[in-house]
Write a structure and sequence with these properties.
The chain is an all-alpha fold.
Length: about 290
Amino acid sequence: MLKEQLLILVSTPLYIVVIGLEILMSHLHIRKFYSTRETVINVYMCTLNGGLDLLFRTVYVYIMALCFGFHFVDFSASPVWYWGLLFIMEDLAFYVEHRVDHFVRICWAVHVTHHSSEEFNLTTGFRSSVLQPLYRFIYFLPLVLFGFKPLDIIFMYSLTQIYGILVHTQYVHKMPRWFESIFVSPSHHRVHHASNVRYLDRNMGMVLIIWDKLFGTFQAELPEDPVRYGLTKQVEKRHHPFHIIFHEWESIASDLRKKVPFSIKLKYLFMPPGWSHDGSSKTSRQLRKELRNS
């Protein structure tokens, strides 16, 4: 994993410099972009995610290597094609995973931790979905069948994650129009972290915004609707080390205890977050429909 180790050596000083600058600018401009408790929670969840990933890596690399034996395409003859296509396909795979995380409740229960902060700064990018390493590799298995080596896929994911972290900032207002038509920008990603009804479940891409524009999940940041960060229903004990990770699982358990048919219980697991059999809570799609009709 030499390439990934080199990536860590390069990215770590970069993170230290840009986060330090953002903290300094936030302090000088008297903007409350950072708080000690939220930053500690971000680092805590990043550490848990990274530790779990290392523990489970042997398992998922082994599974990916087994699947690689059945690959039916080979792009290795052309390094340009190989790495270019790997970047595009890995970014698409991330978009699919990210969209599922937002529209399937048991997956949202894992991913919700990344959205639970009411702050938005560069350390929010490290606020990882702790349990995600246990299943993320499944979305990369099609890439293995297309002839991309498991370690190269992991390296590309780590590389694109650097970009994905850097867009967690409020200091970049808008990028040039040509850039924002192709790539995810800080403006796009601020929308993704918003709790405003208009912005829910939008802008899922890591590097390329074209997937959102192709598949109907794009939403521009609008000056008349300033972003409010966090969840539509904020976590009560948002600094508790266990509750912050498992609070949505606790809500799922509560819904599963309801005296409803088994088919309804399954829907509480696999329907989008906010779905309810009696209308007591609503999905983002239902909330947006109400907003349009109001």
